Amino acid sequence: MAHTSHPKLRVRRIYDPPEPDDGLRVLVDRLWPRGVAKADAHIDTWPKDLTPSTGLRRWFHSPEGEYEEFCRRYERELAEPDAAEALSDLRARAAEGPVTLLTAAKDPPHSHTEVLLQALNAS
Length: 123
Fold this sequence. Notes:
Distance between the termini: 27 Å
Strand order of the largest sheet: 1-2-4-3
Structural class: alpha/beta
Order of helices and strands: EEEHHHHEH
């Protein structure tokens, strides 16, 4: 079940088998997903500069964590120079062909992937 926001950008769970139309497969989680062998993941790139920081991830999963504030904080992280450069690179790759963002998040539409998709779709 793919979540599509842009014809060449989509989000899938890392636990779903690769599909021929995935194009560039990009892991967008800071930690390697549990139970997935690296050989089976078919990951093309893992740009950790695009993932939520460890501190932000821990805060979000704590009792104080709240999704709207998480989104604001993550947008600020994505505006930092290394993340902005990685966003620009990934945006250029999406202009060349399909890009599939892979996550272990149980509910991708309510995770960092939505913020990342919005940032990638912004010009």
